[in-house]
Amino acid sequence: MRPQVPCQHIREYRYAYGAVSPIDGELFSLVLPYTDTVCMNVFLHELSKAYPDEYILLVVDNAGWHRSEGLLVPENIQLYPLLPYTPELNPIEMIWDEIREKGFHNEIFASLDSVVNRY
After folding, report:
1. Is the pTM of this model over 0.90?
2. Phi, psi values for residue 56, rounded to 5°
3. Where exactly are the structural domains of the chain?
4. Hey, what's the torsion of the CAs at 98, 18, 36, 10, to 10 degrees?
5. pLDDT tens-digit readout, 23-59
6. Are 76 and 54 in contact (CB under 8 A)?
7. Minimal CA–CA distance to 88: which of 56, 67, 59?
8. Structure letter (DSSP) for residue 26
């Protein structure tokens, strides 16, 4: 007999933005409602504010909101774009895989807020 795993078919989304330090593994992240230039600007501003005395080289893939002309990059952050079609080379992708695998495996949530609060 095959095991049955319940699944949800709700189409509500929230997006995790994050940066991880390769030196000590410290993670900075925000959950935001969209993947766009406005939310990317919020993330960059909050990242800069959280680490005001650090110079941050942030690896980004070629998503539209990572290379938008409206992007406001703080002075202590430099964006380092990857080659096109290589998002798997972005170190943060390993963190997202771990979160998906260990944090949300075979589980049903009552609401989108409960998912966001779990993160």
Report:
1. no
2. -110, 120
3. 15-111
4. 30
5. 998 999 999 999 999 999 999 999 999 999 999 999 9
6. yes
7. 59
8. -
